[in-house]
Specification:
Helix content: 25-40%
Distance between the termini: 59 Å
Number of helices: 14
Number of strands: 17
CATH superfamily of the largest domain: Mur-like, catalytic domain
Radius of gyration: 23 Å
CATH topology of the largest domain: UDP-N-acetylmuramoyl-L-alanine:D-glutamate ligase
Shape: elongated
């Protein structure tokens, strides 16, 4: 079945419209010009994502599934979570109304715009948010799910979000450590290009080992075969996976020319242990016995002044003077990756990109100063894995000198990762 098979006056009935997935389905169908009605057992006041429906001419029946809803609907779309034994399916069957699953909507209603995906262990949200800001500043409208307080990288959200109205898709692609998830997101979101920030241990509760986790992230690389992929070339895990998978597509590498802060061991894709002269945790200069080594980078930041928050960026075309509001060497990596993406994917000139970066104040919960008590700053950061915590603590150390108290709560790194986080905190 194709989108063109539905007459223009088709009415789609969406059950569970207050839930994330069906909310997005309803908006996709309305964006495509069809009539949409919805139901939900929530009240209007309790409808979690009601605000995102504002501006859409969608009749919603709250607290029930009335007869009128079934009389008007030519097709019914139920939520993924609704069991087939639910009473509402008896009504649908009795009235002989065709049912379309959320997966059918994904198959039928194709993506109609370029889509860029961003994945990695750390830096995804900052990178995604900044790239979107640059797009908005240049009159390019990225699709937005507009689901308040909802993490935007859960499996169906980016897939459905890519089908909403907009000029481009800029999607954060997460995994929660579940094999197959990234593969489905990349394929069903129809990514045209993407970026990998870094790969360091995370979600070990789910997967058990770093290489298992790394190969989940490798699904992103597989999904972009034959397309453009922007990567942190100073991360040996990323570069090792590209070599292992014999990636056939355009690879654009970026990195930072800075004095290493130390040497740490990291498991290489070949199975050996590799020493990384780290600039940030897990990324820097490396040479493995298998021959894997730091490549000559396409984009590289030099002359970094963290106090003034400036650096020079050497591109394939020219040298740029970059000014940013963000703190920390990890954000130099994030900003460089975004510059590459904005130039290569959004096709924007460097001067327009740099104008936007210079006014970007960051993302809530990322090295965010929330209070000053006496002479002490209170800063919040959502780092939730060993590499993220270590990188942030290094930057705090540079900014503040002595760190008297650090409280860290982790929920995604497994017992081994939590212990590693605790030990890293003690180092600072």
């Amino acid at each position: 079945m194709n989108e063109s098979d539905f007459p223009e006056d088709t009415t789609f009935g969406v059950i569970g419209i207050c839930g994330a997935n069906c909310n997005l389905v309803a908006r996709i169908l309305k964006d495509r010009g069809f009539d949409v009605i919805g139901t939900d057992m929530s009240s209007g006041d309790d409808c979690r994502f009601k605000k995102s429906l504002e501006g859409y001419d969608i009749e919603v029946f709250y607290e029930s599934h009335p007869e009128e809803f079934f009389e008007k609907a030519d097709y019914i779309i139920p939520p993924i979570s609704l069991p087939k034994t639910a009473e509402v399916f008896d009504i649908i069957q009795e009235k002989n109304i065709p049912v379309l699953e959320v997966s059918d909507i994904i198959d039928i209603f194709k993506v109609n715009k370029p889509v860029f995906g961003i994945t990695g262990t750390n830096g995804k949200t900052t990178t995604t948010t900044l790239l979107k800001k640059i797009a908005y500043d240049n009159n390019i409208a990225p699709v937005e799910h507009n689901l308040e307080k909802m993490q935007g990288n859960a499996e169906y959200i980016p897939i459905l979000q890519s089908r909403l109205n907009g000029d481009v898709g800029i999607l954060e692609v997460g995994t929660f450590g579940v094999p197959g998830t990234i593969e489905r997101i990349v394929g069903n979101s129809e990514l045209t290009s993407g970026l990998i920030t870094n790969i360091t241990p995370d979600h070990l509760n789910d997967l058990g080992g770093f290489m298992e986790y790394a190969h989940v992230k490798a699904e992103f690389i597989k999904g972009l075969a034959g397309k453009q992929l922007i990567v942190n070339g100073q991360d040996p895990t990323i570069m090792g996976l590209l070599r292992e998978l014999n990636f056939e597509g355009e690879i654009i590498t970026f990195g930072v020319d800075e004095m290493p802060v130390g040497v740490a061991s990291k498991e290489c894709v070949c199975g050996k242990t590799i020493d990384v002269k780290e600039i940030i945790s897990g990324s820097g200069y490396y040479l493995c016995e298998c021959g894997l080594t730091t490549p000559q980078l396409d984009y590289i930041a030099t002359n970094i002044n963290l106090k003034n928050r400036t650096f020079e960026l050497h591109t394939p075309d020219e040298k740029l003077e970059v000014k940013m509001l963000l703190e920390g060497i990890h954000n130099v990596y994030n900003v460089v990756g975004v510059i590459v993406a904005a130039h290569e994917f959004l096709k924007l000139p460097y001067d327009k990109i740099l104008e936007s970066i210079a006014t970007f104040g960051g993302v809530s919960g990322r090295m965010e100063k929330v209070a000053t008590i006496g002479e002490k700053d209170v800063v919040v950061d959502f780092a939730h894995n060993p590499a993220g915590v270590e990188t942030v603590l290094r930057e705090f150390k540079k900014l503040y000198g002595d760190i008297t108290t650090v409280i860290t709560i982790s929920s995604e790194s497994g017992a081994e990762g939590d212990l590693e986080i605790f030990n890293k905190v003690l180092e600072f």
